[in-house]
Amino acid sequence: MTHAFALAADVANLPALERLIEEVSDLQSKLILVVGDRGKTGLLRALARRLNVSPINVGVKLGHRLAATPFSDRGFSTNELLREITDNGRDGTPLLLDNLEVLFEPSLKVNPLNVIKLLAHSRSVIAAWPGEIRGERLIYADIGHPEHRDYTRDGIVIFEPAQSHQGTGRSRI
């Protein structure tokens, strides 16, 4: 996929994602997971440009903070550190999260989906899910892998970006 085509696909998905953000604004959990093989980061960046915000690279930001945290305290500190990283946003502006893989580190002993769900009670959160959706399940890593997670998608709003310039993304609530 060329860079220009990728940008066109990202922009084509924006209106559908923006409508979905409006739809979830009244829900208790305002979490939207962007799920798909590709295009998630580009879509978050396109949305960030439209909203004049920066997406948060959770892997980099949280990884740096965890590296400075004693190993034995990391599991207890993860939620608090992530909240500190994300609290500097503007009120009413959606929080855009990318590169969530660090949350799946087994030594943290956290539930990655619950960690980001907690952030979505007070404001809209659009997060690029690093795994896949299989039927009604959100999957991260294969069975047997130490980071494997398998969640039901009940109550989770999913946005799947269209992979071509001919369509727009689809959402499932």
Describe the structure.
The chain has helices at residues 3-24, 40-51, 58-67, 74-86, 112-119; strands at residues 31-34, 56-57, 95-98, 125-128, 132-134, 137-140, 149-152, 157-160, 170-172. The protein has 173 residues and is α/β, with parallel strands linked by helices. Helix 5 links the parallel strand 3 and strand 4 (125-128). Helix 1 packs across helix 2 and helix 3 (58-67) crosses helix 4. The chain is globular and about 45 Å long. The chain starts with a helix and ends with a strand. Residues 1-6 and 164-168 have low confidence and may be disordered.
Strand content: 15-25%
Q: Report the count of strand segments.
A: 9
Q: How many helical stretches?
A: 5
Biggest sheet, spatial arrangement of strands: 2-3-4-1-8-9
The run of helices and strands is HEHEHHEHEEEEEE
Low-confidence regions: 1-6, 164-168
Provide the helix percentage: 25-40%
Give Rg in angstroms. Answer: 16 Å
Q: What value does the average pLDDT take?
A: 87
Gap between N and C termini: 29 Å
